[in-house]
Each structure stands twice: as C-alpha cells, then as structure tokens.
Amino acid sequence: MTDLRQDTLDSFAEIFGRPADGLWSAPGRVNLIGEHTDYNEGFVFPFAINRRTIAALGLRDDRIVRVGSSFADELVEIDLSDLRPEALSGWSSYPLGLAWALGEFGADLDAVPGFDLLLDSNVPVGAGLSSSAAIESAVGFALNDVWQLGLDRRTLARAGQRAENVAIGAPTGIMDQSASLLGERDAAVFLDCRSLHAEIVPLGLEAAGLEIVIIDTRVSHAHATGGYAERRASCEAGARALGVESLRDVGVDDLDRAREILDEVTFRRVRHVVTENQRVLDTVRTLREQGPTAIGDLLDASHRSMRDDFEISVPELDLAVETAQANGAIGARMTGGGFGGSAIALVPTDALSRVYVALDGAFAEHGFGQPDLFTVTASEGAKREN
Ligand code: ADP
Ligand code: MG
Asked: Are 220 and 195 contacting, i.e. CB atoms less than 8 angstroms apart?
C-alpha cells in the first residue's frame, strides 16, 4: 500500500510534469449480509476492505480536466464546460461522472478550476468488491477538499450513487458508496436503505481470531443483468399484491398471509427479502451481544435463502460455500448480486490453510477454474493520505 501511494505520486509527476497537490484514497467493500434488500428499502451490512483506490490530484489554473489511470494507456481530457453524462464513456465515466454529480450537490461547475488526476488501485475489478465505488469515493473525497465544497460523507455517497445511476447507467443503490465512505477499522456499516440512517457496528474479528475469506469464483454468467432486473420486478409485483409500498413493510409474521395471496415463485422471492432483512437485524444484535463467532448460522441461512428461494446462486458459489463450511468455516455465503462473483467465509485463523487447500481441491475435482482466494480486513473509509 505504501508503495502504491508512492508509485502514484511518482507517476503523476512523470505524466503531468509537476507534483500532485495531494493524495486521497477510498476502499472497496464486501457485503457481510443483506442481499437484494437495498432496492426493497431494507437493511444491508457491508464493510470497507483493505484494498483501496488511490487518487493523486493537482488543481490547474484553467478549466481543463485530464484523468489517467494505471488501468488505461490514454489520458482522457475534457473542458469542465462540456462535462455532461452524455459526453462520457469508458472507464473515465467513473471519475468524470463523479465530478459532474458534485454539480448536482452544490458544486458550481461553471466556476471551479480544472484538475489533473491519476488513479491507481488494488481493488480487484468485477469481483463484486466495488472497484467502482472505490473510484467514486476517492475522487469525490479529493474534489470535495480541493474545491472546498464542505460536503459531508453521506452527501458524497449520494453523489457517487448519482454518478453511477446517471453517468454510468447502472441502477444501483447507495450501499457501496456508503461502505466506502463511512467504513471504520474492524467495523461494519449497518445501513437502513429507507431512511439512509447508518450505524457503525464493531466486528471484533481480530480479537476473536477470525478471518473473512473472499472466494472469487471468477465466473460471471450472461444472464446476470437480466436476472437482476427480473428479481427486482418480482419484488415489486409482490409488494403490489400485498398492498405495501415496498417489501420493507412486510415482516416474518406476515409470511403466512403472503403465501395465500402470492403465486409460488413470487412468494419465495418475497420470503428471501423478508427473512434476509430479519437476518441483518439478527446479525447486528448477535454481534453486539455475543460477538462474531455466533453469526455463522445467519450467514449459512442467508446462502440457503439465496440458493433456494431467490435462486441467484450458481454451482461454483454453492461449492465454495459447502466446501468452506465442511472444512472449518464458521459460516459462509455468496455475496453480491449473484449469478457468479464471490462468496465469503468466516474462518478461524488456524483453519485458514485447510479451507484454502480444500477449495482448490474441490474446484479442480469439479472441473471448475481455480478460484481466487484471499482474506480481507475491515478498514477505514475514504481519507486524505497526504
Ligand atoms: P465492481 O464490482 O468492481 O464495482 P463495476 O463493473 O461496477 O465492477 O466497475 C468496474 C469498472 O470500473 C471497470 O470496468 C472500470 O471501467 C472501472 N474501474 C475500476 N477500477 C478502475 C481503475 N483503477 N482505473 C480506471 N477504471 C477503473
Ligand atoms: Mg460496481
């Protein structure tokens, strides 16, 4: 990480021919529990991870913006007067879309100065760890400083979501940006997606001798986008049939009535969301009362619910979860939108190598590609590095 910071500063000086004014960073995130609950105005419980995007930035005395990334060969240049979502494309839509979105939250884009920006990152792209929110949050945090906007972290999260929805065109909620901006060391962010109220809840993983393992299956199924939209539509249909604004308004006690009203498939979709919301609340309470060794069953139940009721798991994710569980994990579940991506496992430190070996063996035995295995720790949100 130290190297990444220094490298980014050195590259900035080389590319732009002058030193940066400062260095900012923001983390990716993983969702501990609470899947497909965000757009149902429910609860999610992500944490910021120890993989970060670094942004080196220097203000200019004209209105030009130039952005570069270690991921791309070319520099992208635009005049601030031309900054509109329709003018953006490719990877630079993330940093430039964020600059545009700040205009929606109070920045006077007709008056602010241009800037040179260089990005580097060790957040894996497309693994479900939100490399996109890491960029938006790092750039938002940096511009908020140099443009002296005085926006708080929650507003920067909303700006990141606006950039993602409008400039990128991804209909995502506010979970990723909230985790990246509000995260703290060894703690997760309990977020109510209706009120946007966020609470920091200590995880206590290190003290309990526990690790969170990411099992990136590296599979991505073609129907991910269609499947996501279809699940969203089922949730909306279920809420309509039950006469509520969103599934947030349905509790576990209402499920018997729901079973009578809804068709079989819609009922199972609804049951996932309703029980998943309850599992988030139970996880937060269990952590506070008994600590992290007691949350394993809730993670396991979350996976079963996504596999059987919401039907968004795939054989690689099921294998990852079952293998981890059978080899010493306290709990495991797929994480993210589904149809591929990563699973997480809560593993005692002394069982780590056994879990790794078992996963490698099981994937080989089933003829699946090797998964990418690594641990993450809960880390602090966006910050100025120097
Ligand atoms: P994720 O689950 O990782 O957030 P997304 O599809 O939402 O996946 O975002 C990934 C996209 O973000 C990449 O395709 C790329 O355009 C952009 N991106 C991520 N990290 C960087 C980076 N360091 N530099 C430039 N672009 C990046
Ligand atoms: Mg993303």
From this structure: no
pLDDT in tens, 80-125: 999 999 999 999 999 999 999 999 999 999 999 999 999 999 999 8
Is 176 annotated in the active site? yes
3-class secondary-structure state, position 10: helix
176 residue type, one letter: D
> Is there a contact between 223 and 204 (Cβ–Cβ < 8 Å)?
no
Q: How far apart are CA 319 and CA 323, in angstroms?
A: 6
pLDDT for position 312: 96
Across 294-320, average pLDDT: 98
What's residue 173's pLDDT?
87
Report whether 83 contacts 117 (CB < 8 A).
no
Dump the DSSP string for 15-38: HHSS--SEEEEEEEEEEEE--S-G
For ligand 1, atom 4, the nearest C-alpha belongs to 130
Q: For the whole model, what pTM was predicted?
A: 0.95
Instruction: Tell me, in angstroms, the distance from the centre of ligand 1 to residue 71's CA.
Output: 9
Who contacts 227 (Cβ-Cβ below 8 Å, separation ≥6)? Answer: 221, 312, 338, 339
Instruction: Return the axis-axis angle of helices 175-182 and 153-162, rounded to nearest 10°.
Output: 150
What does the block give as tokens for 78? 């635009």
43-70 as b/e, with b when 16 or more CB fall inside 10 Å? bbbbbbbbbbbbbbbbeeeebebbbbbe
CA distance 221 to 132: 20
| Burial letters 222-248, b for 16+ CB under 10 A, else e | eebeebbeebeebbeebbeebeeebbb
The rounded distance, in Å, linking the Cα atoms of 1 and 75 is 24
**CATH code linked to domain 2-201:** 3.30.230.10
Check if 130 has its Cβ closer than 6 Å to any atom of ligand 1: yes
* Å from CA of 129 to ligand 2 middle: 7
Domain-by-domain residue ranges, the chain?
A: 2-201
| Host H or E run for residue 345 | strand 340-348
Distance CA 95, CA 84 (A): 12
Geometric angle at alpha carbon 153, from 149 and 155, rounded to 5°: 70
Local structure of residue 368 (DSSP, 8 states): P
Return the pLDDT at 109: 97
